[in-house]
Amino acid sequence: ICSAEYDLPALAEMLERYFGGIDLVGCTTAGEITPAGYGRGCVSAVGFDVRSFAISSALIDEMERFSLLDAQQMVETQVAGCRRGGLAPIKDHSFALTLLDGLSSREEVVLAALGAALGAIPHFGGSAGDDRHLTHTHVYHQGQFHT
User: Fold this and answer.
1) Are the beta carbons of 77 and 102 closer than 8 angstroms?
2) Contact 43, 7 (CB under 8 A)
3) How far apart are the C-alpha atoms of 94 and 82, rounded to whole Å?
């Protein structure tokens, strides 16, 4: 998670260079939570140890067309990916993290579809921001920033 003020292609290249092969996701923000408190112009991260967490991620690249059927298929695929890790049962040991395009005007519709598809799996997350310019937000997935 980072400020939109960064050179995003250069940051994506560095993230891929140092963390390639790791399921890394993020988004641009309008402020970041840091060890020193709320910050601006920062990069923030949280990691999940692969010895304790099975991770699976997906990009919703067409939020305007995302449906309940899409959500159900996505959740099934992600759950199957986590099951392959075999670390713990999915029930009572899972959560979904969503990072959505903050300018899409479709966040509530997408979250409603995902919520229905997730059932008892809790989900939380946020919206990509752009330092309050409200012009371009980005979600990072598989080595690149997407708009």
Assistant:
1) no
2) no
3) 9
SS3 sequence of the chain: CEECCCCHHHHHHHHHHHHCCCCCEEEEECCEEECCEEECCCECCCCCCCCCCCCCCCCCCCHHHCCHHHHHHHHHHHHHHHHHHCCCCCCCCCCEEEEEECCCCCHHHHHHHHHHHHCCCCEEEEEECCCCCCCCCCEEECCEEEC
The tens digit of pLDDT for each residue in 14-57 reads: 999 999 888 899 999 988 888 899 988 889 898 998 888 999 99
Single pTM value for the model: 0.86
